[in-house]
């Protein structure tokens, strides 16, 4: 594939605004690009304007290698702060600018390029490469959840998630657990608080217990300590009323050794205990839950990817972990286990930034890396 063609695909993809909730035009665009190169793909609708895309090259028998990316981006924020129009896809020197260039239209376009190159070379000879392009990765992970439900990772033997990883190979990432604890009391005039139940005071007591609820959790050998923060505390409406409602919200960065289920159970136990001890009522609500992902760094797929990268880039690819969740949090909900690693073009810290940009050289190399991984994985020359 010519560099200009590859660059054009990424530019056009950036020019389609896919701020979370409007991914369908991008899915349709990629379907067209793939179809122009003789590759069939399916659009899997999730909601109005929201469509996943799944495409395959190769043979029906044999192992399955999945390339996973997402179509949505985060919001632009204050567009006045951008020097380059976030939907321009402009190339200046070695950089291509725009929302999603790094997170992760660059990685996704590179995966599309790889599929085209595989198709043109008649590869893989035994097995297939499946592209999964999802909606909603940046908010709820609904796209990857739906693909998992529909069994699209059931037969997968290994997966690469194409998020930017700053020239490192990520084999594990923390999960994320967002929750709300609601405290219900009873309204009364502040001149006679005994007639009421103070939801704020109760919640403050809950807070004191909860602060230390995870102190005993041992650190993960790969991901380090579980990280717990109470980030919102809200209650009361009127200065002279005993408040009948308050809530707090928090986030836990979960680890495989103490995952989202364990966190939820522990919070629920605390809620149940304090409900039994106190007047008033607490209620736990799960706002969002993304599981941690941890592939064994000794898994042979990890070293295969490192070697493939070395072959193409002529330099080593060090291992790393990250603390942000990805679509992998959904794909691991499938009942069978398979290795997942994250590698994609771009510097992770450029994600979600003003004037987000991706190195053109890195982008143009990325499909070669994925191609080499596919060749090494299937044993094709
Ligand atoms: Zn991303």
TrEMBL record:
EC number: 3.5.1.18
One Pfam family, short name: M20_dimer
Cofactor(s) for this UniProt protein: Zn(2+); Co(2+)
Listed InterPro entries: ArgE/DapE (IPR010182), ArgE/DapE_CS (IPR001261), Bact_exopeptidase_dim_dom (IPR036264), Peptidase_M20 (IPR002933), Peptidase_M20_dimer (IPR011650), Peptidase_M20A (IPR050072)
Catalytic activity: N-succinyl-(2S,6S)-2,6-diaminopimelate + H2O = (2S,6S)-2,6-diaminopimelate + succinate
Ranges where the Peptidase M20 dimerisation domain occurs: 171-277
Keyword terms: Amino-acid biosynthesis, Cobalt, Diaminopimelate biosynthesis, Hydrolase, Lysine biosynthesis, Metal-binding, Zinc
One of the record's GO molecular function terms: succinyl-diaminopimelate desuccinylase activity
Pathway: Amino-acid biosynthesis; L-lysine biosynthesis via DAP pathway; LL-2,6-diaminopimelate from (S)-tetrahydrodipicolinate (succinylase route): step 3/3
Superkingdom assignment: Bacteria
BP GO annotations: diaminopimelate biosynthetic process; lysine biosynthetic process via diaminopimelate
PANTHER family the UniProt entry points to: ACETYLORNITHINE DEACETYLASE, PEPTIDASE M20 DIMERISATION DOMAIN-CONTAINING PROTEIN
Family: Belongs to the peptidase M20A family.
Cross-referenced NCBIfam families: DapE-ArgE, PRK08588.1
Name the record gives this protein: Probable succinyl-diaminopimelate desuccinylase
Organism: Limosilactobacillus mucosae LM1
């Amino acid at each position: 594939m010519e560099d200009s063609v590859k660059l054009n695909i990424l530019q056009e993809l950036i020019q389609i605004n896919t701020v979370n909730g409007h991914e369908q035009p991008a899915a349709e665009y990629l379907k067209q690009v793939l179809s122009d190169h003789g590759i069939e793909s399916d659009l899997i609708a999730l909601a109005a304007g929201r469509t996943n895309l799944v495409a395959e090259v190769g043979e029906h028998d044999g192992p399955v290698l999945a390339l996973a990316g997402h179509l949505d981006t985060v919001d632009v924020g204050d567009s006045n702060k951008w020097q380059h129009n976030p939907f321009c896809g402009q190339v200046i020197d070695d950089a291509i600018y725009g929302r999603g260039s790094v997170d992760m239209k660059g990685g996704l376009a590179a995966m599309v390029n790889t599929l085209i190159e595989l198709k043109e070379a008649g590869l893989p000879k035994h097995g297939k490469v499946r592209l999964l392009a999802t909606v909603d990765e940046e908010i709820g992970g609904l796209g990857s959840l739906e693909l998992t439900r529909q069994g699209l990772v059931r037969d997968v033997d290994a997966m690469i998630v194409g998020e930017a990883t700053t020239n490192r190979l990520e084999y594990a990432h923390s999960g994320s657990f967002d929750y709300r604890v609601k405290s219900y009391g009873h309204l009364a005039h502040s001149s006679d608080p005994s007639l009421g139940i103070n939801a704020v005071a109760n919640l403050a007591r809950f807070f004191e217990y909860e602060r230390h609820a995870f102190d005993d959790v041992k650190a993960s050998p790969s991901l380090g300590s579980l990280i717990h923060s109470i980030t919102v505390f809200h209650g009361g409406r009127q200065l002279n009323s005993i408040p009948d409602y308050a809530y707090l919200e928090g986030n836990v960065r979960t680890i495989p050794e103490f995952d989202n289920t364990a966190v939820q159970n522990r919070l629920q136990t605390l809620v149940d205990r304090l409900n039994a001890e106190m007047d008033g009522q607490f209620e736990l609500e799960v706002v969002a839950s993304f599981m941690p992902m941890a592939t064994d760094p000794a898994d042979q797929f990890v070293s295969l990817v490192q070697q493939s990268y070395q072959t193409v880039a002529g330099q080593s690819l060090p291992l790393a972990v990250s603390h942000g969740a990805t679509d992998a949090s959904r794909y691991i909900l499938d009942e069978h286990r398979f290795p997942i690693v994250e590698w994609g073009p771009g510097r992770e810290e450029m994600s979600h930034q003003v004037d987000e940009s991706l190195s053109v050289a890195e982008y143009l190399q990325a499909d070669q890396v994925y191609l080499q991984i596919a060749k090494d994985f299937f044993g094709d020359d």
